[in-house]
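Minutes, structural biology subgroup

Action item carried over from last meeting: produce the structure token record for Glycoside hydrolase family 19 catalytic domain-containing protein (Hevea brasiliensis). EB confirmed the sequence was re-checked against the source entry. Recorded below for completeness.
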Amino acid sequence: MLKHRNDAACPAKGFYTYDAFISAAKAFPAFGTTGDVDTRKREIAAFFGQTSHATTGGWPTAPDGPYAWGYCYKEELNQASSYCSPSPAYPCAPGKKYYGRGPIQLSWNYNYGQCGQALGLDLLNNPDLVATDRVISFKAAIWFWMTPQFPKPSCHDVITGQWSPTGHDISAGRAPGYGVITNIINGGLECGRGWDARVEDRIGFYKRYCDINELSTVVDYQ
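Output recorded by EB:
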């Protein structure tokens, strides 16, 4: 699936491994095991579709196409911002930055704080663990996937059919499907704007993984 993740040009070469993914997934028993076989496959396709976009090293004329280059990066390229938001519950540690790391590019101190709390780790003081420990890196991504991002549902609940839209969701055009997952992850920057290259990239990866798993792909744009 991740054909070029270990390409010499990829900064994350050798970091993302199958064993690390499986080890991390075991900490979340419902991940990839909910529903019938097609639902389980679709969740994995959606997870890798979103995370491949977040870590892509592809370009339009890349060998094997742009969607064969997921998991090329493990850290955000632009690390100038500290991604520190005032939070009494999850205060930023002196000198630490909470830019995107790992498969889902976990960002912001409050996400590192909540994730660390759930995993039993001090990620506020040690955010680099998400980019240096391959199992923790996958665990952080799956934690975000499985955890409701209030007031939004979890990505897991959406893709497995366990989320029902409210009247407000329906009026805003949010229906169960892959588009809502994009909304959960980065909706403030990508959704409600019509055609967007970033959204198109997420869909391209998702379609690739659905094709590999012999799944139909009817993708909604949110």
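Discussion: The mean pLDDT is 92.
Next step: EB to file the record with the rest of the batch.
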